[in-house]
Design brief:
Blueprint (H helix, E strand, L loop, with lengths): L3 E4 L2 E4 L4 E7 L8 E7 L5 E8 L5 E3 L7 E6 L4 E6 L8 E8 L16 E2 L3 E6 L1
Parallel strand pairs: 2-11
Antiparallel strand pairs: 1-3, 3-8, 4-5, 4-9, 5-6, 7-8, 9-10, 9-11
Amino acid sequence: QVRLVESGGGLVQAEGSLRLSCTTSARTFNNEVLGWFRQAPGKERDFVGAIRWTSGWTDYADYVKGRFSISRDNAKNTVYLQMNSLKPEDTAVYYCAHTTKNPAVFSITLEATYDSWGQGTQVTVSS
């Protein structure tokens, strides 16, 4: 399994911004996808977005399109989730996850596709 460590969470006011980081252990895999999910209190864990490491191709959930963006730094083995125009409903624990399953076969929006998970980082948006 790949070790993932998230950081960057915190408390921010509505319309503010945060950048989360997810640092991974050494990569030697093809078809790598790093995904971001979030889980609000009392709710299921939902897909936020994902990036294919090799190509940089990204995909986002509709409710974050235009506000969130994902990028990667190969040299640092780190993926970033830039969150802008935050809303109180974005309050959740944010998790990064890793998979090497072929995204042409397995949906990257599903939790079950991912093999490794970080510990999560809390994001709280106040109104």
